[in-house]
Specification:
This protein has a domain of 207 residues: Lambda Exonuclease, Chain A. Helices cover 49% and strands 10% of the residues. Strands 1-4-5-6-7 form a 5-stranded mixed β-sheet. Strands 2-3 form a two-stranded antiparallel sheet. β4 and β5 form a beta hairpin. The protein is α+β, with helices and mostly antiparallel strands. The protein binds iron/sulfur cluster. The site of iron/sulfur cluster has 11 residues, from α3 and α13.
Length: 333
């Protein structure tokens, strides 16, 4: 953890000290992508934000943590639909077969409308300012701010589309008669043991069907965050899911990942092939990130320059903290 006397530490040592030791470092696709896009954004996300959950933390640290918690609208939609499907299925599977469809719809719609209400409540009262864990949409508080009232109808429409597409899909007809033991409802975030560091990913709905493990990955259009030179986030999730099933369940059969799009630009189900060569990408990416952590576990601000890519800052979620760092550097360096 950073010391409370943060500025003094930076001034005297001309570096950001930290307790994040190399052996606790982990790899995730979003982390690797951020590392490639902008080293400073990576620094803010991985190191500067540590300890920002404390309201009395230094304003730079608190700002990094607050910005890290805000979700873009498509990602909020994707997660809410994923969790809504889980809740709907939990309700449905407790019912006799002929009551399951209705129970699913009721469970799903109740869950997503509850999440929307909670988001609206947090946004209207600005609860996220005091408690950054409360829901907050990035689009409503950064840059060209959108009023929440403009996004609300889009959320309602997306939930209706997701529900309609899913319940009409052939896959849903196969899911509904299954036993609850065919589902893994508790896996929100999965850690894979890997050398040189653990790997994290957020799976979709995991289930066992026709002697194979499957994953249903809901996605509002654009939520996968396609980046030139990178495999898609969905393909990476499919590859990590495959690795997870092989290492945890010792299964050799290939897994199946269904990307379920429900956004205005793309809708429907498609099977996604795992991104090839992911273990090598993880090892080389983790190795590069590790090389910037000193043997004592500290990292140096100067090792994390701003992106030089034209337009690279356009959608940066850490723009506010980045400006604060510039002002701080102007005063002290
Ligand atoms: S605003 Fe630009 S330079 Fe600053 S952290 Fe974001 S991407 Fe990097």
């Amino acid at each position: 953890m950073f010391s409370n006397d943060f500025e003094k530490e930076m001034l005297s040592a001309a570096r950001f000290g930290g307790s994040r030791t190399a052996f606790r470092f982990s790899w995730s696709f979003s982390r690797e992508r951020l590392f490639r896009q902008c080293r400073r954004a990576f620094f803010i996300d991985c190191f500067l934000s540590q300890g920002g959950w404390d309201p009395s933390a230094h304003p730079l640290i608190r700002s990094a943590y607050v910005e890290k918690q805000r979700l873009p609208f498509p990602l909020w939609l994707s997660r809410t639909v994923r969790d809504g499907i889980r809740e709907g299925l939990k309700k449905a599977l407790a019912q006799p077969p002929d009551a399951r469809r209705k129970a699913f719809s009721s469970g799903f719609l109740r869950f997503v409308s509850g999440k929307l209400f909670d988001l609206e409540f947090s946004m209207s009262r600005k609860e996220y300012l005091d408690d950054p864990k409360r829901p907050c949409l990035r689009e409503c508080v950064e840059g060209e701010k959108l009023p929440f009232s403009a996004l609300r109808p889009q959320a309602v429409s997306a939930f209706g589309t997701a529900h309609g597409l899913l319940t009409e899909s052939p896959l849903f007809q196969e899911l509904l008669p299954l036993d609850v033991m065919n589902f893994r409802f508790g896996d929100d975030l999965i850690s894979l043991p890997f050398d040189p560091c653990p790997v994290w990913f957020a799976p979709g709905l995991i289930f066992f069907l026709s002697n194979k493990f499957h994953m249903l990955l809901p996605s509002a259009s654009g939520a996968e965050g396609e980046t030139p030179g990178f495999p898609s986030a969905a393909a990476v999730s499919a590859a990590l899911f495959d690795l997870h099933i092989r290492s945890k369940w010792k299964r050799e059969e290939p897994t199946v990942t269904h990307l379920f799009r429900f956004g205005p630009d793309a809708a429907g189900m498609e099977e996604i092939s795992p991104a090839p060569g992911l273990p090598d990408r993880i090892r080389s990416g983790a190795g590069e990130m590790f090389s910037l952590i000193r043997p004592d576990g500290s990292v140096f601000f100067g090792d994390f320059p701003k992106t030089g890519e034209p337009g690279g800052c356009a959608f940066c979620r850490f723009a506010g903290t980045c400006r604060m760092l510039d002002e701080w550097a102007g005063r002290h360096c």
